[in-house]
Amino acid sequence: MSDTLILEVFTFAVLALLALDFVLQGRDPQPMRPGKAGLMTAFWISLSLLFGAFVWQTHGSTKGLEFYTGYLIEYSLSVDNLFIFVALFGYFRVRNEFQHRVLFWGIIGAMILRGAMILIGVALVTRFSWILYGFGAFLILTGFNMILHRGVPGSDMGKNKVLKFLRATLPISSEAHSPHLLIKTSGKWMLTSLGLVLLMVEATDLIFAMDSIPAVFAVTQDRLIIFTSNICAILGLRSLYFILAGGMKKFIYLKVGLSVILIFVGAKMLFKLWFHPSILVSLGVIVGVLGASMMASLFKRDLQ
């Protein structure tokens, strides 16, 4: 089976599952509870692991490890998005039963945006291999910047530059009009506040993708691995939000762990002539750093 066919089948299967999820959620518009969110998260993670096993079987162990490492990098870095989601939903007072709708359409938009970014990135790296050094330097600087600015992202949403720009340039209704994203008033289409939240979710994912996608290039330049690991990661993000939304502030050292991961993968790219740990070692480092940062956060919480 060619990589192109695999990508086509993968994309079709993802869209079919999302459509089914959307229909089922429409029949039960109640807020997603932690128990159901836990089952959904386990479902998406299991599908991702099974797809990784498929890659392992059809493309060999190296490609299989590349998928799992890329998936873990993307999943862990995508967790940073959850801080923004919590801040956005709180600032706009989005009711729990409408949050699932925003995150659903957010995933559809993220798939399109990330797919385009990956295609452009692969084309650039194939044509100009030196770009990897630029990616590496960018990730290292981003990692150190995250360590120096460890506040909760989006904690002061009223001063967000993207939000100010959208409010200044787009027609936005002052009323919620939930669950609609657009409304027509006096013959003019306007965004509702829920629609504005959706645009902010998309903008947030685009900003964070500028970190996470280059990070996967430290693992592989294979578009199949990069695209599928990205999509698998963001599929599980929505249900994970409903598990962690109430306790994000507990993981006070998570951003430090994510910063270390960015610095590590950036160093792999920038100093690849002298520093080239194997995929298995890289996977071990990422798992170890994530585990240590979460355990340290829980230990700190218990001491308080």
What are the secondary-structure elements, in order, as H or E?
HHHHHHEEHHHHH
Task: Give the overall silhouette.
Answer: globular
Number of strands: 2
Q: What percent of the residues sit in helical stretches (DSSP H or I)?
A: over 70%
Most strands sheet: 2 strands, antiparallel
Question: Helices, strands, pairings?
Answer:
Blueprint lengths: L2 H25 L6 H26 L1 H31 L4 H32 L3 H18 L12 H9 L12 E4 L2 E4 L1 H24 L6 H13 L1 H8 L9 H17 L8 H25 L1
Antiparallel strand pairs: 1-2
Helix pairs in contact: 1-4, 2-3, 2-8, 2-9, 3-7, 3-8, 3-11, 4-7, 4-8, 5-10, 10-11
Structural description of this entry:
By secondary structure, the chain is mainly alpha-helical. It has one domain (3-303). Helix content is 75%, strand content 3%. It is built from 11 helices and 2 strands. The chain has helices spanning 3-27, 34-59, 61-91, 96-127, 131-148, 161-169, 193-216, 223-235, 237-244, 254-270, 279-303, and strands at residues 182-185, 188-191. It has a two-stranded antiparallel ribbon. A hairpin with a 2-residue loop joins strand 1 and strand 2 (188-191). Helix 2 runs antiparallel to helix 8 (223-235). The longest helix has 32 residues, at 96-127. It is globular and about 65 Å long. The mean pLDDT is 80.
